User: What shape does this take?
Amino acid sequence: MNPVALLKKYYVEGSELYNCVLAHSLSVAKKAEAISLAHPELDVDAHFVYEAAILHDIGVFLTHAPEIDCVGEVPYIQHGRLGAELLRREGFPTHARVCERHTGTGISLPEGDFFPETTEEKLICYADCFYSKTHLDVEKPVAQIKQSLSKYGAGSVARFEEMYNLFK
Assistant: This one.
């Protein structure tokens, strides 16, 4: 599977949104790769982590987020679930799980709870917390991530701290 080719199926190559999603996803993939190399005891599937990190935000184009040129009608918070639907249709159910479980430190929606469960899901979720799509290539400090997550409750911060302890 070529994750960048799959992104190009849904995004116009060279567009602002494509460039944004690809740059963000590459930052997440690089951080996840660095963590996996630093922790061989975790025995993660590095190839899968790279693919899933590139595809974790594939659903953003379907959402309403004008600050990053997304002109869909669905709230941005749903991008993971939408991306998961796309990837399941493409025949990648394991990658789809990463999509639907990476937002924040996992998310509870009317359809159910979508918290990362596998080490690979947690790794991509964790790495994603360090990068936004509005300040590309700027890695957020841990204190800023915790502060940002605190508006979603103590559970979000606790899940981040659990991942931090696993991957630091």
In short: Residues 3-167 form a domain with the Hypothetical protein af1432 fold (CATH 1.10.3210). The CA atoms of residues 130 and 141 lie 7 Å apart. DSSP finds eight helices and five strands in the chain. Helices lie at 3-10, 16-38, 46-55, 79-90, 93-101, 119-128, 142-150, 154-167.
